[in-house]
Amino acid sequence: MSSGDDQPKLKHHGDDVPSSAKTASSEADEKISLTTPDGEEPSDEEKKNLQHVAENLPLSVWLVAVVELSERFTYYGMSGMFQNYLNLPLNGSEGRGALGLGHQGATGLNTFFQFWCYVTPIIGAIVADQYLGKYKTIVMFCIVYLVGLLILFLTSLPVSLHHGAGLGGFIAAILIIGLGTGGIKSNVAPLIADQYTRKKMAVSTTQNGERVVIDPALTVQRIYMIFYACINTGALSLLATSYMEKFIDFWSGYLLCLCMFAIGISVLIIGRNSYVVRPPQGSIITNAFKALGIMIVSRNTDAPKPSWQAVNGGKRTNLPWDDHFIDELKRALVACRVFCFYPIYWVVYNQFSSNFVTQAQQMQGHGIPNDLMQNFDPISIIVFIPILETLVYPAMRKLHIPFRPITRIALGFIVASLAMVYATIVQHLIYSAGPCYEHPLCDASKVNGIAQGNRVHIAIQTPAYVLIGLSEIFTSVSGLEYAYTKAPPSMKSFVQSMYLLTTAFGAALAEALTPAAFDPAILWMFVGLACGTFLVGIIFWVTFHHLNDQEDVMNALDAND
């Protein structure tokens, strides 16, 4: 490590040394700078010239991933049936249903559920960061989640529906489930990254003799790629619940979700001694808001620092934090600024579980349930993540092509806009086809009393889901990664909840668009979302691309904790 100190000295005396000696000196210096022992922090020259790689993951990462898989299996398998459960009447001619609220009513209540699920993470974050810690908080909210699932299952039974308990039971269930999933969501994402404890880069030699740099940032990126792959493996539960809904009834799908969630809780409890668990930090969130208040009043982001107060004759003494905490808080604020652009993305994302389901119903299914098409979103993610993680990203690193989080997020916005362009084209094809044209599911399309949709094959919708899935890998995975790496160690759950809160704002925007969710106006809603998402992606890149150059510096703050 002494080479880093010698290098500037050699350069300083370079004018008095002959050019040939200067060349020899430079070569020797470079050789020295690339011989750091394995396990030690690399020199600046090694960081620049050696390939950066991710590290193998501990077992506890995989245990947390299994818990997340089971929770997402439950969430998507359950909520994927909501649109039909709410939309269609019990024993209705359009197909199997339950509550009969119609398209707009179903979309509105479904969107509210999504909104609620992404507001409640704030509650879970405060409980974890200030009182119980992540693990105990997850266990507590899992129990709450389980109660909501039980209510949903019991009130979806035919006897309950025929006695009018369906709607009341559904509303009670989604309120409780939303509270449960929110408490889990804000904590499970930081908990899985907490299992990896390396904070600084280190030099390593591979079995092939190649010297590489183990980069914690790349390892965290890999963790969240695996985490997201587990989320979407769980989301394939719709393959089962869609057919269970179609050929048995909704209650059977809800029962499957209840049982799978029970398995997830069991894994969580059985593996309790394997996890790296960070203790709560008391009034850390309260302190953060106090520091923010000082920043706002003073109009100076350094004003809450004890050192600033001492030098500038500040009146605030005995502050319950140090300068480093304020530097971390400022970094977290950078992440929150980045998240401000996310709601428009989530509006697009929410389409795949609401209006895309209804769009699929307007086409001829050829035996495919309309809500089964949602599975092409997680399938595309499961296919693309290994390709990106094992082929594309390593190739880019070998070629020294940076693909930083801000770039990935901006690209995700652009790909999401393409998904909406394609959905617009599909909607136009539906309206151009008979027998119902701009009024799908009219009486002219009914066969044996069941509406068949216009003469467009349901499979044509597939690319829209594939594009949404690809956009998630760039935007959503990078958002999880950014929320973790930019948050102070004591506020991981809270900053994660701020990221998740953008999804709630996206659901609120989608709720505002519900009045436009009717034929044929919905086509123009898709056009507006396509244009808006593309423009936001461009504005996002212009606004934040400079943060790519600060990535390593901001991530290095954690090395001091």
TrEMBL record:
Compositionally skewed regions (Basic and acidic residues) per UniProt: 1-16
GO molecular function: dipeptide transmembrane transporter activity
GO cellular component: plasma membrane
Keywords noted in UniProt: Membrane, Transmembrane, Transmembrane helix, Transport
Spans through the membrane: 138-159, 165-184, 223-244, 250-271, 332-349, 379-396, 408-431, 464-485, 497-516, 522-544
Keyword hit for Membrane: yes
Cell location: Membrane
Pfam families to which the protein is assigned, alphabetical: PTR2 (PF00854)
Top-level division of the source organism's lineage: Eukaryota
Keyword Transport among UniProt keywords: yes
Region (Disordered): 1-49
Membrane topology recorded in Swiss-Prot or TrEMBL: Multi-pass membrane protein
Family designation: Belongs to the major facilitator superfamily. Proton-dependent oligopeptide transporter (POT/PTR) (TC 2.A.17) family.
Protein name: Major facilitator superfamily (MFS) profile domain-containing protein
Naturally occurring in which organism (per UniProt): Penicilliopsis zonata CBS 506.65
